[in-house]
Amino acid sequence: MFQPGTLVVYGATGVCRVEAIQQPEPRSGGQDKPCYLLKPLYQDGVIYTPVENTKVPIRPVMPREEADALIGLIPTMRAEACHAPTIQALTQHYQAVIHSGDRRDLIQLMMSIYTKQKQAEAQKRRLGMVDERYMKQAERLLYGELAAALEIPFDQVQPYIARRMEESASIET
Fold first, then answer.
1. Starting from the edge strand earliest in sequence, which strands make up the sheet with 35-40, in order?
2. Are residues 45 and 80 in the same domain?
3. C-alpha closest to that of 19 among 3, 32, 42
4. Are the C-beta atoms of residues 40 and 19 closer than 8 Å to each other?
5. 41 and 98 in a common domain
6. Same domain, 70 and 43
7. Would you write out the chain's pLDDT as a tens digit for each of its 173 residues?
8. Is this prediction's pTM over 0.90?
9. Where are the beta strands (DSSP E) in the chain?
10. Within this chain, do residues 86 and 71 fall inside the same structural domain, yes or no?
11. Within-domain flag for 1
């Protein structure tokens, strides 16, 4: 059980702070189980979810060391642009990655869409709306968790990663 004040990743919502653990008012005939009151860090609103939720994964934010190690892996990762026969198939693929919660998969998804964006620009075309939407969602999820783990503002995550990539490149040369 997570304690109030703990930062967690709640499904595709992203990083939330556990504000409280509440016992709902008893209802007739129902089993009332304790719920987390979650406050998303990068969205408005609050979320009530059972402590024993089996439908939406909830896990602690990765530790700082793991965040730094993950960023260190980025130069070794390769991703191909994902092309699907239909928009529905593309959407299902992107949704599966988003809902998996796997951080490496999120990075590869972002790299894949970035590759697709560069290909579109070379052809003087725009990136598709589905690609744009899932790129933003993947960035929000990954950058949100990295910001929380590294204890830096959300808008400083991308420059932080870029700086680490530059340092990595200068060490290799």
1. 47-50, 35-40, 14-22, 7-10, 58-60
2. no
3. 3
4. no
5. no
6. no
7. 899 999 999 999 999 999 999 887 766 555 678 999 999 999 999 999 999 988 999 999 999 999 999 999 998 888 888 888 999 999 999 999 999 889 999 999 999 999 999 999 999 999 999 999 999 999 999 999 999 999 999 999 999 999 988 887 777 65
8. no
9. 7-10, 14-22, 35-40, 47-50, 58-60
10. yes
11. no
Task: Please tell me whether residues 141 and 160 are part of one structural domain.
Answer: yes
Domain containing 123: what range?
62-172
Tell whether 17 and 38 lie within a shared domain.
yes
Pairs from 128-137 (Cβ < 8 Å, separation ≥ 24): 128/87, 130/87, 130/90, 130/91, 130/94, 131/90, 134/91, 134/94, 134/95, 134/97, 134/98, 134/109, 135/109, 135/110, 137/12, 137/98
Distance separating alpha carbons of residues 37 and 17, to the nearest angstrom: 8
Quick one: 100 and 115 in the same domain? Answer: yes
